[in-house]
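If you are new to this repository, start here. Below is one unmodified record pulled from the training split, so you can see the exact layout before writing a loader.
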Amino acid sequence: MTPAEAISDERARELAAEIATRSEYAQYAIPDPASFQAVLRWFRGILDWIDALYSASFELWLLLLIGLLLTALALLAHVVWTIRLAMRANEVAPGAARAPDRRRLDLEAESLAGDGRYLDAAHAMHLACIEQLVQGGVVELRRHDPNPTLRARLARARLTGEQRGEFLRLLDWLEQRWFRDPAPEPRDAELFAAWRALHARLGSVAA
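And here is the target side for that same chain:
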């Protein structure tokens, strides 16, 4: 644009105002000063009213002040109570949090066995046995640790030789059935019964 074609200052201001009113620039608009002034006037009016009330009736002003303080304390107490309630909900003891899981595994295993799905039932009861030892502090194990880790932890666990040997024997049996040949077999019911009996014996150890 040549100097002869340059727009005037007045036209430039008009264009700037027009561009500023477009929707894409709305988020950058400065709040209306009139609205802010109205809020300030309302707040000053409240202060003036309280000041006038103090001069006209000190007793009523004192009652109002006490009421406001009590309301503020009640709100603060409610906030503190809500925060403590939320924190307490996250502080459930590990044993209390996982006991229902262990019980559900027992029930799931029994339900699967009732449907004739003995291999699945044996697997569920095997998980219930692990959960039982973990919650009893007999074995330190995370949920997704592999069986080799479980075997290493069982070697150092507070178990009798018979309990440890039976656990490892059933674990070998279950792995062979679960990972190699999952087709139903007549001995699956025997495998489930063995895991259920071991679960009952481990209950005293975990306790």
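Two things worth knowing about this chain: Residues 89-102 have pLDDT under 50 and may be disordered. The longest helix spans residues 58-89.
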